[in-house]
Design a protein that fits this description.
This protein folds into three domains: 116 residues, Roll (Nuclear Transport Factor 2, Chain: A); 222 residues, FAD/NAD(P)-binding domain, CATH 3.50.50.60; 193 residues, FAD/NAD(P)-binding domain (3-Layer(bba) Sandwich). The strands form six sheets. Strands 1, 2, 3, 4, 5, 6 and 7 form a seven-stranded mixed β-sheet that branches. The protein has a five-stranded parallel β-sheet with strand order 10-9-8-14-25, covered by helices on one side. A five-stranded parallel β-sheet has the order 15-24-16-17-20, covered by helices on one side. It is 31% helix and 23% strand. The chain is globular and about 75 Å long. By secondary structure, it is α/β, with parallel strands linked by helices. GO terms for molecular function: flavin adenine dinucleotide binding; monooxygenase activity. Keywords: Oxidoreductase. It comes from Cryobacterium levicorallinum.
Length: 596
């Protein structure tokens, strides 16, 4: 009778633990299959790093093992699987931290290993049994209340006392990261130019809703209520972020704009110039995080004749939504998420709308995406199966980017079959569809380029029915009253909306720090897949995201709600370790590739 999955994993872990503690690198590497992947989040590499193959793993262990001192590898719960393919959740420790891992074994050898740092020893979050008392049960004169202490601390930080970290950008990413920092005791100020937390959502077009389901979108520590809608309105999200900021007691400087930042080499700290409520303030943090969204500045192409256009024109990021467009002709340049949403909004408000599609687009129907791609990880059924949000995040991360396409292709093949009639109808009206260059669908497009897709929440039917027209081709020039395509097609226009995406996040650095620093950091996002808008070389992790950059003490944080939640944990731990003076030797700092 073959051994149970639990027995198989326990035997592997015992041998792995022994090899690592005895510094037997050959013995450890022998426990991996010929095709193998070890993805590490901070625990071994102080980096986000994927090792591919035995040679990579051997090289990493040779450099890190003496410093990391890993031990005590053990099952966190019974292993699962059968017939030579088993999976397991694993706990382990290092000299400095406690970790959590996910392991896949094929025929007794490791196929994939994900290791993650979860807490630093001696610097754990004050939670559970370690939570603060909150009050002294000793009556003395002059005692100060919680509110008095909080108000006094907020008044000092940034003036009499300097924060250890400044986060530029107070949207979902900055807010979630600041919550992690507070739990770790890292003095942090969030800089946000809007008047209130959540305004970056409130200020978008009024019909905007999340396209991702609620189970995918929780913030750290405080999940949405059980009656929260599956797809929340942008104003509802804005209100949640505002209240979250208050509940989590963040040092959140709204109505504050960062105007310049420079590194003081002598003091080894940043000099950050901000204007708060009209008053200049200088902050001197040791660590500086840019959390300015999923991407950089709006990308608004300049077409011949645009300056002569007599109507209204703006980028999608400035589209207010609503209004009365009865009798107006609107042309939307672009065919991804924002373009579809804005076309739907304009059609609802009376416009005669044409979408100009310049390149092919992947479309996933929302219901199909939830059922086929997300349901196993982020759904009520997943929760019923014991897949918590935290486990789902780790399971998604457990597949390195090299093999993620092979896991996604069957999902999107099934989607193509299930929704064949839908796709045929779109093709019939001239919409140019794709499933990615390799058929891997939406998630890989997002990771590779952050664009090129639409999650259909209704706008596709407008195209199919002809209520919104579709024209394919490149835009040649603009006249005072029209848009002219390269094939000579002329589209009358009273409004042009450029749903043309955004640049790289390091574009912000050029203006706020310097062009030299922006280029030293290099491009953000993408992982070198050598697919459209994600050129090689292969890097295996998203460029510059949530990990050390080539500019010391400068970090980039961003992504959707899921990524902001999950990866903020690792970024916060890296910054906390530096604050406490721990050794943080970064293994194979990623090279800078590409400028702005």
């Amino acid at each position: 009778m073959p051994d149970s999955p639990t027995t198989v994993v326990e035997n592997w872990l015992a041998r792995f633990d022994s090899a690592l503690q005895n510094r037997d690198i050959d013995g450890a590497v022998a426990l991996f299959a010929d095709e193998c992947y070890w993805r590490d989040f901070v625990s071994f590499t102080w980096n986000l790093k994927t090792l591919e193959g035995k040679a990579d793993i051997e090289r990493m262990l040779a450099v890190t093992l003496d410093e990391v001192r890993p031990y005590s590898w053990a099952l966190a719960e019974p292993a699962t699987g059968a017939a030579g393919a088993v999976e397991a959740w694993v706990t382990f420790e290092t000299g400095q931290a406690r970790g959590y891992a996910h392991l896949r074994l094929n025929d007794g050898l490791c196929y994939t290993l994900l290791t993650t740092m979860q807490e630093l020893k001696g610097f754990e979050e004050k939670k559970g049994r370690n939570r603060d008392q909150g009050v002294s049960h000793k009556i003395t004169k002059g005692r100060t209340s919680w509110l008095e202490n909080k108000t006094a601390q907020e008044a000092r930080l940034g003036y009499e006392e300097q924060p250890y970290c400044v986060i530029v950008g107070g949207g979902q990413g900055g807010i979630g990261l600041a919550a992690r920092m507070r739990r770790l005791g890292v003095p942090t100020i969030v800089i946000e130019k809007n008047a209130k937390a959540g305004d970056s959502w409130r200020n978008r077009y009024k019909s905007l809703h999340l396209h991702d389901p609620v189970w995918y979108d929780h913030l750290p520590y405080l999940k949405f209520p059980e009656d929260w809608p599956v797809f929340a309105s942008k104003d509802k999200i804005g209100d949640w972020l505002e209240h979250y900021t208050s509940i989590m007691e963040l040092n959140y400087w709204s109505s504050t704009e960062c105007t310049k930042a420079a590194f003081d080499e002598d003091a080894q700290e940043w000099v950050v110039q901000v204007v708060r409520d009209g008053t200049p303030v200088t902050l001197r943090p040791k660590q500086l995080v840019f959390a300015l969204g999923v991407s950089g500045y709006p990308n608004t192409p300049v077409f011949d004749g645009a300056g002569l256009f007599e109507g209204e024109q703006h980028h999608s990021s400035k589209h207010p939504g609503g209004g009365d467009y009865t009798g107006k002709k609107a042309v939307v340049i672009g065919s991804n998420n924002s373009a579809h949403d804005i076309c739907a909004d304009l059609w609802e408000h009376g416009a005669d709308v044409t979408m100009v599609q310049r390149s092919s687009t992947h479309i996933s129907r929302s219901d199909s995406l939830m059922d086929l791609a997300l349901g196993g990880l982020y759904s009520e059924q997943a929760l019923a199966n014991g897949v918590t949000t935290e486990k789902a995040d780790l399971l998604f991360a457990s597949l390195p980017y090299r093999i993620l396409p092979s896991a996604q292709i069957p999902v999107f093949e099934q989607m193509a079959e299930r929704d064949a009639d839908f796709y045929a109808q779109l093709s019939e009206v001239g919409f140019d569809l794709d499933f990615g260059t390799d058929g891997s669908g939406l998630f890989l497009k997002y990771l590779r380029r952050g664009s090129g897709y639409y999650i259909d929440v209704g706008a596709s039917q407008l195209l199919i029915d002809g209520r919104v027209a579709v024209k394919s081709g490149q835009l040649d020039h603009i006249t005072p009253k029209s848009v002219v395509l390269a094939d000579g097609t002329e589209l009358d226009a009273d409004l042009i909306v450029y749903a043309t995406g955004y640049g790289s996040m390091n574009g912000w650095l050029a203006d706020l720090v310097s062009t030299e620093v922006a280029d030293q950091v290099g491009r953000c996002w993408g992982y070198g897949s050598d697919t459209p808008k994600d050129p090689g070389p292969w890097e295996g992790e998203l460029r510059n995201m949530w990990k050390p950059t080539n500019v010391p003490q400068l970090w980039i944080h961003g992504g959707n709600l899921h990524q902001s939640r999950h990866y903020s944990n690792y970024l916060a731990l890296q910054i906390k370790a530096r604050m406490e003076g721990l050794d943080t030797p970064v293994y194979e700092l990623q090279e800078s590739h590409y400028t702005r």
